[in-house]
Amino acid sequence: AKVVVIGGGVIGCSVLFHLARHGWTDIVLLERDELTSGSTWHAAGGMHTINGDPNVAKLQKYTISLYKEIEELSGQATGVHLTGGV
Q1: Contact 49, 60 (CB under 8 A)
Q2: Distance between CA 83 and CA 79 in Å, rounded?
Q3: Residue 12: which of 30, 33, 24, 25 has the closest Cα?
Q4: Shortest CA distance to 63 belongs to which of 31, 18, 6, 7?
Q5: Do 4 and 31 contact (CB within 8 A), yes or no?
Q6: What pLDDT does 50 receive?
Q7: What is the pLDDT of residues 17-63, one digit of tens each?
Q8: Which among 18, 33, 61, 80 is least buried, having the fewest CB atoms inside 10 angstroms?
Q9: Which own/partner contact pairs does 18-24 have at CB distance under 8 Å and 24+ positions apart?
Q10: Residue 10 DSSP one-character state
């Protein structure tokens, strides 16, 4: 493999997804148990774009749109439910 990503949490899956989206081949993700079964699956937090750092706010906005894109590409629901905020 050209790239081996170790860990199938949110970061590992994201790295693999983005490499594949940019045309990388011969890439592998290694996970010891089950995808997203580690600490990130229960790290529930607000999905929002309000942040004091404009770069972090852009990253958060990108992440929200990425979930929608993944659903469109895969035909599978991601389970994301945006509730809004005050």
Answers
A1: yes
A2: 12
A3: 30
A4: 18
A5: no
A6: 75
A7: 999 999 999 999 999 988 877 665 555 556 666 778 889 888 888 98
A8: 33
A9: none
A10: H
At 71, which helix (H) or strand (E)? helix 54-74
| Cα–Cα distance measured from residue 55 to residue 35, given in angstroms and rounded to the nearest whole number | 28
Rounded CA-CA distance 19/29 in Å is 11
Amino acid at 32: R
The span from the CA of 80 to the CA of 41, in Å, is 12
Domain ranges of the chain: 1-44, 46-81
Q: CA end-to-end span of the chain, whole Å?
A: 47
Helices (H), the chain: 10-21, 54-74
User: Environment class of residue 27 by beta-carbon count within 10 Å: exposed (0-12), middle (13-18) or buried (19+)?
Assistant: middle
